[in-house]
Design goal:
The structure is a homodimer. In chain A, helix 3 packs across helix 4 and helix 4 packs parallel to helix 5 (108-119). By secondary structure, chain A is an alpha/beta fold. Helices cover 35% and strands 14% of the residues of chain A. The longest helix of chain A has 19 residues, at 39-57. Chain A is globular and about 45 Å long. In chain A, strands 3-2-1-4-5-6-7-8 form an eight-stranded mixed sheet, with helices on both faces. Chain A has a single domain (2-245), classed as Rossmann fold. At the A-B interface, helix 3, helix 4 and helix 5 of A face helix 3, helix 4 and helix 5 of B.
Chain lengths: 246, 246
């Protein structure tokens, strides 16, 4: 019989690894090229896990407003698509997501995720109010699915710089997917937005090492070989959970 | 604000709908064509939910054998691919799946799912022992991911007829994905295999109406409009659960 079980366990005595930008990109490339994971598949796994993380951090019964509204702000690339999937699952979990997706990706895979949300009658905002009080009043929280580790904050263009300026002022909690938008992957980020919840995907990025809020790790699908190769030292997930609090 | 919440709830007072073959196919076509879900995405969602169902029905600590072995038998089409994804997630949940996949699909999407399992060192059997005692001794249970509702039992070819004959004789429990292989979607199936657990996907098929074993419904992603259009009257899922016991 298959005897590989005990040696296949990741080591847990070593400290959790926080990834550089290059390492995060290398792992994703290896997943797509060598392990033949699909982009659509990964985005679905990640978005689903993020929705579960948000439901854990902000249970329906804990929300202050009469309606369980959530504003999901989606960026132009993969992080934005993870936000779309997250919004769709939040809808299934009885939340009322509203999406702000100012620049839509031209990729078919990304467009498909957009159509899924549109066809499920999830409303899309045509602009983000600059009056932050309107956001504070209308939503229980904001999901930040704007920029992932692939984006250098120095290259950030409008409308994202303006959106992040608005998000720095909102009083309702922010949950960031993979990493807080606008932060340097490896830097010190005292100037950026200040999310209450962070859901790191695959493994946390270096910038998350000093994150003071509620921090989840999500995406329980990384092959054990890859975990070992990059010495990720991931914590143990419980039962069939797809995320774990760090 | 979005006021659609209460009216978007599916009705739960009407009885759960059991689908005909035509209805099951129509819902899937609508998901793929109109809602722009991807095949890869659906198979990932379903396989993941099936693995969770199996872990619920057969928790690691409940398994009789020293190693948490599971034999996953995969058919040539979509049901087989759901089995591949299920096996991969079972591996993440610390089970030791072994796959028997005698006829591999030529579709790229399906091949990708195969590579993912191979690269995760999940063993593939080159043949199924005809001596059922070998199966009873080696595995804790069998996952039947052979044939879905699209296959007419009358068209069943080898090696599947022989495999089902073997599975009719095994003494360890069988968990069937979507429907028990070899059963008529809408028929009375006293002659077929006799699974202990059934994990229906999207909505149960007509043949499941009199299923006497443990019956889960999985795949909590069906747009509410589609649920209403086909009058599915799905039961309520709890919290963020992706499956519910019927």
């Amino acid at each position: 019989m298959n005897q590989g079980h005990t040696e296949a366990e990741p080591e847990s005595s070593e400290p959790l690894r926080y990834l550089s930008k290059v390492e995060a990109a290398a792992i994703e490339t290896e997943l797509l090229k060598d392990y033949r994971f699909g982009q659509q598949q990964l985005i679905e796994i990640w978005g689903h896990a993020c929705a579960i993380g948000i439901a854990k951090a902000f249970p329906l019964r804990s929300l202050g407003k009469r309606q369980p509204t959530v504003l999901v702000v989606c960026g132009p690339d993969q992080n934005g698509c993870i936000g779309l999937v997250c919004a769709r699952h939040l809808r299934m979990f009885e939340y009322e997501p509203t999406i702000f997706y100012p620049k839509r990706s031209p990729h078919t895979v990304h467009q498909d995720f957009t159509v899924q949300c549109e066809k499920m009658d999830i409303p899309f905002l045509s602009y983000l109010p600059t009056e932050v009080q309107l956001i504070n009043d209308a939503y229980n929280l904001v999901v930040d699915a704007i920029l992932g580790p692939e984006t250098d904050p120095a290259d950030m263009r409008e409308p994202y710089a303006g959106i992040l300026l608005t998000l720095k002022q909102v009083k309702i909690p922010i949950a960031s997917l993979d990493m807080p938008s606008g932060w340097h992957v490896e830097g010190n980020n005292t100037e950026g937005i200040n999310p209450d919840v962070l859901i790191s995907l695959m493994a946390p990025k270096k910038c998350a090492a000093s994150f003071p809020g509620k921090h989840f790790l999500a995406g329980r699908f990384l092959p054990f070989d890859l975990q070992r190769k990059y010495e990720l030292n991931l914590p143990e997930y419980s039962g069939t959970d797809c995320l774990v609090e760090l």
